[in-house]
Design brief:
heterodimer, A: about 170 residues, mainly alpha, 9 helices, B: about 180 residues, alpha+beta, 4-stranded antiparallel sheet, 4 strands, globular
């Protein structure tokens, strides 16, 4: 899909996707910010396409990504709401606990930055996109066994680094 | 897959490190560790799993979960958990719930494994120092939760989804030594 084709496609499906995203409410009862989610979903779809993922039915894929982003935000908002609800327990958290929960994104960035580009790519396709080993192999042009080794090695490497930190 | 069982978690961790877990198993691990305090020997692993867990954008299960959430109006789980979870048994509440459930049944929505797991996680968070284990038996639109306390007491709760409000309700059915 070329960039021009993608822009035409985005214009056609955006309203439908916003309508879908608007169906879900976050843990605090507020509607999701549907337009933001859809924008993010379309960007991810473009990223997938750029990475070589076979986009056979772009609209179905866009809907699936939108739904998963909504669920992800819903879950995050729920856990945040529950944390606020158990406010009396917050004071009992140690500094280390707070660090662990608050800085997941930072930890991820640090851990990923220490991976080789190939390991990093496989980890991103696996964890952010939820691709199977076969899909990662197809997308990256590597063998399935090679992908498996890259992910396994990356995870073991990250675990060792965390063991040193914690 | 009962992740409350440490042996199962350990086996899954081995599979995870060998890249032999499915996407859904990895998602389940991330959900578990974000809801539970990791034991000392699991801390590094839990930190890795939760920190690297992404949005799993191509997950089929996530899309199904979306449909379930979207069909219910959401009321924060915490409100109902606090109201019902570990208070003294309110006989009147049980009677009211009984009326709602059995005399005036509403359209039934099956409770998903994810909702049950999340609810168990919240119960554990509220009283983790006293709870030994929690077992859940899904029964269509309801689930029976058996909470085993460290002091030997076993409490049984019925968990339901209120179709009208989207809330998760817990009502204690019994408490035995």
């Amino acid at each position: 899909m070329t960039k021009e084709e993608f822009e035409v496609f985005s214009g056609k499906v955006r309203r439908d996707l916003i309508s879908i995203a608007g169906r879900i409410h976050l843990g605090d009862g507020q509607p999701t910010e549907a337009e933001d989610i859809v924008q993010d979903a379309l960007l991810r779809l473009w990223e997938l396409s750029e990475r070589g993922y076979p986009v056979n039915n772009a609209k179905a894929l866009a809907i699936k990504i939108t739904k998963n982003l909504c669920v992800s935000r819903y879950r995050k908002s729920r856990s945040e709401a529950i944390s606020l609800g158990t406010n009396d327990k917050l004071g009992e958290l140690s500094a280390a606990d707070s660090l662990e929960t608050a800085d997941n994104q930072k930890i991820k960035n640090i851990l990923y930055s220490r991976l080789t580009p190939a390991r990093q790519e496989c980890m991103t396709l696996r964890n952010d996109f939820g691709m199977s080993l076969d899909e990662i192999a197809e997308t990256t042009g590597r063998s399935k066994e090679s992908v498996k080794v890259l992910i396994s090695t990356a995870r073991k490497q990250m675990l060792e680094q965390l063991k040193e930190l914690l | 897959m009962n992740l409350e069982d440490k042996n199962i978690r350990k086996a899954l961790a081995e599979k995870y490190l060998s890249a032999e877990t499915s996407v859904e198993e990895e998602r389940a691990l991330a959900c578990y560790y974000s809801d539970h305090q990791a034991e000392e020997d699991e801390k590094a692993f839990a930190a890795m799993v939760t920190a690297t867990a992404g949005d799993y954008l191509l997950s089929d299960e996530g899309a199904v979960e979306f449909d379930r959430i979207a069909t219910s109006k959401t009321i924060p789980l915490k409100i109902n958990i606090f109201r019902w979870a570990f208070g003294t048994v309110a006989v009147a509440a049980a009677v009211i719930l009984g009326v709602i459930l059995f005399q005036n049944p509403v359209k039934e929505t099956p409770i998903s494994a994810v909702t049950i797991a999340e609810t168990i996680g919240e119960i554990m968070k509220l009283n983790e120092e006293n709870i030994l284990s929690i077992e859940a038996k899904p029964q269509g639109s309801k689930a029976v939760l058996t909470v085993n306390l460290k002091n030997g007491i076993t409490q049984t709760y019925i968990m339901t989804l209120d179709e009208e409000t989207g809330a998760t309700l817990l009502t204690q059915l019994s408490s035995t030594n």
